[in-house]
Every structure is written in structure tokens, then in C-alpha cells.
Design a protein that fits this description.
mainly alpha; Arc Repressor Mutant, subunit A; 2 domains; 7 helices; 2 strands; globular
Length: 151
């Protein structure tokens, strides 16, 4: 029997995390095909819907744990695709927020189903899912101490 080194055990865990993520993403992409949106676009449509009038670049950055410039690029693309529109927070103000257009609202309503994720996660009991959440938060917290927190 070949003994695994600690590094190879970590790589195996990372491989499992990566495979689970890829398969869940693949299922989500298939689920979103009828709405002609990507999982990332669906996540932003959901965030804008949830944040409402607080859907600014800064708030979206916090919501997704991404840099403002990354969020800005995605918003520009989604605006060009007709899913969202920029709205001034106050007349003559430079501050902007985002709203769903009619097209964005339709896509959001279709995408909010998340049945693939629910189906996949139903393989775990509530206790197992909570345990998984706790383990993932432990890994996230450790990673943030090494790399610094996301925005």
C-alpha cells in the first residue's frame, strides 16, 4: 500500500472541491440555457433584485466579494445586453445604482428557480449541509488570513 503524503491528501481534497464546483456549475448552466444567461449573470440579477435601491457598485462588490472594477465590467456587459440599466441615485448626482430592465426581470424570474442546486444539495441532510457550511467557512477564514479578505 502506498502511503499518501500530506500534500497529496490536500491536493485530493482540492480536486474534490473543484470537481463538485465544476459539476454544479455545469448543471446550473444547463438550467439557465432557456433564459440565455450565464450563472454569473443570474447571480448579479439576483443581487440587484435583493439589494433594490442599494444596488450600487460598492454594495454589489461587497455582496459578491469582488473588486469594484470587476463588478463594473460585468455591469457594463449586462447593460449592453439589456438586462440592467443605470439610474442616478439623485437627479444631477454622479452616484449610480442598477435596476433590472423588463428583459432582466424576466431572466431573473426564470433563473431564480435554482432547482439544480436544490436537487444536488438534497443529497445531504440538513445536519450534513450545516456541517459542510461550517467546514467551508473554516477554509475561507484560513484562506483570508493568508491572502487577505475579498473586497
Amino acid at each position: 500500500m502506498i502511503k499518501k503524503s500530506p500534500l497529496s491528501e490536500f491536493q485530493y481534497s482540492r480536486k474534490l472541491l473543484g470537481k463538485a464546483r465544476r459539476l454544479m456549475l455545469k448543471a446550473r448552466k444547463m438550467e439557465l440555457e432557456p433564459f440565455q444567461i450565464t450563472p454569473r449573470q443570474a447571480a448579479f440579477l439576483n443581487a440587484i433584485s435583493e439589494l433594490g435601491e442599494r444596488a450600487t457598485l460598492t454594495e454589489l462588490s461587497k455582496y459578491h466579494g469582488r473588486a469594484v472594477n470587476t463588478i463594473s465590467s460585468q455591469m457594463t456587459e449586462m447593460e449592453a445586453d439589456g438586462f440592467i440599466k443605470k439610474v442616478r441615485v439623485m437627479p444631477k448626482s454622479k452616484a449610480l445604482r442598477f435596476e433590472l430592465t423588463e428583459k432582466g426581470l424576466g431572466a431573473h424570474q426564470g433563473a431564480v428557480q435554482n432547482s439544480s442546486l436544490q436537487e444536488i444539495m438534497s443529497a445531504l441532510s440538513e445536519r450534513e449541509r450545516k456541517h459542510l457550511d461550517a467546514l467551508l467557512m473554516t477554509l475561507i477564514n484560513r484562506a483570508e488570513t493568508i491572502s487577505g479578505p475579498n473586497p
